[in-house]
Write a structure and sequence with these properties.
Elements lengths: L2 H22 L2 E7 L7 H20 L8 E7 L4 H14 L4 E3 L4 H7 L1 H6 L3 E3 L19 E3 L4 H14 L6 E6 L2 H17 L3 E7 L7 H9 L4 E5 L2 H14 L4 E4 L6 H7 L1 H4 L4 E3 L7 H10 L9 H21 L4 H8 L6 E2 L4 E2 L17 E6 L2 E4 L3 H5 L8
Parallel strand pairs: 1-2, 1-3, 3-4, 4-5, 6-7, 6-8, 8-9
Antiparallel strand pairs: 10-13, 11-12, 13-14
């Protein structure tokens, strides 16, 4: 045999072997979020547990596109510069096919330009900031998706409650002075206008404040009987403790951050039941949800963070459905498939029927949320005549 023929055959065999090695490599999924630094870390930790459970199930069934999944995590410690660095590392060095997270909405806003430029899908499963899934510019391709709460949807429901409540005569707003609080306050003011709700007072507080009596006294002097609050769990706890100091308890509607165990621990059992809020699941679970809880519950930092495990599990299932439909791990192919999923996807929160479109990247909307109050240390479904009377047309946002 001629040397040239031997060389060609050797190159051909080497190419086949190389192709075999590539196809055998795991498909990498990235997670970029707080896993250690702030109260929201327990949410990020729960999301990763849910993702890992989904990955274990998928790998046990043979994987996708002939390959198994592996998760690469990066802790951003709630710091935007660190989160930006993590995103570049996951995409450029780890070569992930998709990224999940973060826990903090502000961090997503700091780096969302990166996956959009590099055409790598992101499926958020914790952070709820309204603008996270908005395109970078009108009509632009958008690689940001989400399976989690959305601030504006929550606020639309809370304001519908205020509008329907005949006892809500004088309404005030409160928000923490972070990006999270600022975004929520903007949504609250806009939706109040849409609903025709007059806001008589607006007060701000720092996330580290432990005494809000000054702000509350101003609301009290204005005869505010209903207050809508946008803040993280610990400052909401300090707020209700401050209400106790001056014996002033207006109807209090808050962000879903009141579900965090840090809220319950700081508020204490007697005050924890003051706020009304929303989340994606209560502690009254479906059989499928209970089965997942039995698998991972002992690993959660707090039982109240389980909702994020559900988000994590379902976000991976939606990605898998897109991979199968696209028959490709290319980022643009995955994005296009997510925007036009043709078959229902059975998740642990719900069954998703065409959850996304080119213009809409939210898998969950206000209709998927449940009203919640703490009761004796448990997150229980809450209802009253106002909630029972709410109809789809009441949600304006």
């Amino acid at each position: 045999m001629k040397f040239s023929s031997i060389l060609k055959r050797t190159v051909l065999v080497a190419g086949v072997l190389a192709a075999g090695l590539v196809s055998a490599q795991d498909l990498k999924l990235g997670y970029n979020g707080d896993l250690s630094a702030s109260p929201s870390a327990q949410s990020g930790h729960a999301a990763v547990l849910g993702m890992q459970a989904a990955v274990d199930d998928i790998n046990a069934a043979g994987g996708v596109l002939g390959r198994k999944f592996t998760i690469v995590t990066r802790d951003d410690q709630s710091q935007p510069p660190k989160s930006i660095q993590n995103m570049s590392d996951l995409i450029d060095n780890e070569k992930v096919i998709a990224v999940f997270g973060p826990t903090n909405s502000g961090n997503a806003m700091a780096w969302k330009h990166i996956p959009n430029q590099k055409k790598i899908p992101v499926i958020g499963n914790v952070g709820s900031g309204t603008a996270i899934t908005h395109p970078m510019s009108p009509g632009a391709d958008n690689y940001m998706f989400r399976v989690s709460m959305v601030d504006r949807d929550q606020i639309g429901a809370l304001m519908a409650y205020v509008k329907k409540n005949p006892a809500a005569k004088v309404v005030g707003l409160m928000a923490e002075t972070t990006g999270y609080g600022a975004g929520g306050l903007k949504d609250m003011q806009e939706i109040a206008d849409l609903q025709g709700i007059k806001i008589v007072a607006t007060e701000r507080f720092a996330v580290s404040d432990t005494d809000m009596t000054s702000q509350l006294n101003k609301l009290k002097a204005a005869n505010v009987d209903t207050v809508v609050v946008w803040a993280q769990g610990t400052p909401i706890a300090q707020l209700v403790r401050s209400m106790e100091k001056i014996n002033y308890f207006p109807v209090t509607l808050t962000s879903w951050a009141a579900d965090n165990i840090t809220f319950y621990d700081a508020a204490g059992k007697a005050l924890a039941n003051k706020p009304i809020f929303m989340r994606t699941v209560s502690e009254t679970r479906t059989p499928v949800q209970q089965k997942l809880y039995d698998r991972i519950g002992s690993k959660l930092k707090a039982p109240s963070s389980f909702s994020f495990a559900l988000h994590g599990y379902d976000s991976v299932q939606l990605l898998v459905a897109a991979l199968k439909q696209a028959n490709s791990a290319d980022g643009t192919a995955i994005k296009n498939a997510l925007e036009d999923l043709r078959a229902p996807v059975a998740g642990v929160l719900k069954t998703y029927n065409k959850p996304f479109s080119k213009a809409q990247h939210e898998a969950l909307t206000a209709g998927d949320f449940v009203w919640i109050k703490w009761n004796d240390g448990k997150l229980e479904p809450y209802s009253d005549p106002i909630i029972k009377g709410l109809a789809a047309g009441d949600y304006k946002y």
